Amino acid sequence: MPTNSINFLHISDTHSQHRQLTQLPDADILIHSGDFTMNGSEQEAIDFMNWFCDLPYPHKIFICGNHDACLYGSKIDGLDKNVHYLCNSGVVIDGVKFYGVPMFMEDCISDRQSRNYAAVPTNTDVLITHCPPYGILDFDDELNYGSTELLARIKEIKPRLHLFGHIHKQHGVKEDGPTIFSNGSIMNEDYTNFNLPNLIEI
């Protein structure tokens, strides 16, 4: 990791309400951890990407969530050079190693998602997933919805930062050992109001 501090603005689960986010704070890197659509349509995805690309941040990263089904198996062309779509892939920005794992239901109902988590590089500094790790900002309706396999992988690689969403009720930031965990869900649990984005400095 670089010696200079970096400000990360983390959002997730905007569900096609992204254009209502008109006063986002400044940051070095903006990250969206999935569910930018509501119904998974191509039109919703295009509108989000147009909005995301136009935002005035030096670097921007996004991944897909379980709602963003139209992008399953897709390759996205034409993004600005400072905008990165991560799909079981990584990028290095200013010496920081990012890696993103989406949450497509086609993978979750097979063993592919387990393989995706196992493939996260051990030198990852910032891990971006849509699913939470088990037991960390993942509790809703008396259940933990996070992944035990993801938690095990995080304990192995010890990223500095793990960004996710999915469980709207558990929006927040938690530090546990060497890792800062951020649930960036913007829409609240009943989709009637907005949570504040998470601004994290490391």
Automatic annotation (TrEMBL):
Species this chain originates from: Phocaeicola salanitronis (strain DSM 18170 / JCM 13657 / CCUG 60908 / BL78) (Bacteroides salanitronis)
InterPro entries: Calcineurin-like_PHP, Metallo-depent_PP-like, UPF0046_metallophosphoest
Coiled-coil annotated residue ranges, if any: none
UniProt protein name: Metallophosphoesterase
CDD domains cross-referenced by the UniProt entry: MPP_239FB
Gene3D superfamilies (UniProt xref): 3.60.21.10
SUPFAM superfamilies per record: Metallo-dependent phosphatases
One GO MF term: hydrolase activity
The Calcineurin-like phosphoesterase domain, residue ranges: 7-169
